[in-house]
Design a protein that fits this description.
The longest helix has 22 residues. The N terminus is likely disordered. By secondary structure, the chain is α+β, with helices and mostly antiparallel strands. The chain starts with 11 loop residues before the first helix and ends with a helix.
């Protein structure tokens, strides 16, 4: 392939117009979308990035779609196609839902605490340890329950099944740890209990395994283990993020 064929075709008059007259007038964050339009390349990727970014900026969906329409009008003199509108709208919705979920202290389906709330609870434990000279790695631990599915987990039906199984795990956790311990969710298939390290920790984990064995989880396996906490709070945050992946 020649060096001339490797470059996408651009109409010279459109590129000049974008450079001299349109670029300054473009809505904030929409320059990459305008460049993709002018280059006659796929705009869904830039639209998805913009949808996420403007949602994080606090921009309403209607305002974001109006900015997209204005961008197309400036560059092409026409309305945006369905694919561009859909990409921006879906990305905006996903970013907004993630923001709302992060604000919530509790997952609505399972009743388990959200990851930000678990981080907050661990931060409290580490701050308390500084006042009492206690070592968190010897005073507290994490009890992790991980679900492993024996069938494909793609599609809406399987996502619902995963959530339903985790809700069952949440009930088992509450049956064992009912003394004010923080019970939370780590990603799609893991739950966690932030518990004190006591002489009966091994016994409670064994009891939890028995509770889980009595559940009707179908072809889903539940693995339970004790995860030690590091000495530093910053390392604990990294550990949580790793467990939530």
């Amino acid at each position: 392939m020649s060096k001339f064929a490797a470059r996408p075709f651009r109409r010279p008059e459109m590129e000049a117009e974008l450079t001299r007259h349109v670029r300054i007038a473009l809505p904030v964050r929409f320059e990459a979308v305008a460049e993709a339009i002018a280059a006659e390349s796929d705009v869904t990727g830039p639209c998805a990035v913009v949808g996420r970014d403007v949602a994080q900026d606090g921009t309403a969906l209607g305002e974001a779609l109006e900015s997209l329409r204005s961008t197309y009008e400036m560059v092409l003199g026409s309305a945006p196609p369905f694919e561009a509108t859909e990409a921006l709208s879906v990305a905006w919705s996903d970013a907004t839902l993630q923001y709302l979920h992060d604000l919530s202290c509790e997952d609505p389906l399972t009743g388990l605490a959200s990851l930000p709330h678990i981080r907050t609870r661990l931060a409290e434990i580490y701050r308390e340890s500084e006042l009492t000279d206690a070592v968190v790695s010897t005073s507290h631990a994490l009890v992790i329950v991980e679900l492993s599915f024996g069938q494909p987990t793609e599609g809406a039906g399987h996502h619902f099944t995963r959530a339903l199984r985790l809700a069952q795990v949440a009930e088992a956790l509450r049956g064992v740890y009912s003394g004010g311990q923080t019970l939370g969710r780590l990603g799609l298939d893991r739950a966690v209990a932030v518990v004190p390290r006591s002489v009966d920790l091994g016994l409670t984990v064994a009891t939890l395994r028995e509770f889980l064995a009595d559940l009707d989880l179908g072809r889903t396996d539940a693995r339970v283990w004790i995860e030690g906490l590091p000495a530093a709070a910053s390392s604990a945050t990294l550990l949580l993020d790793d467990l939530a992946r």
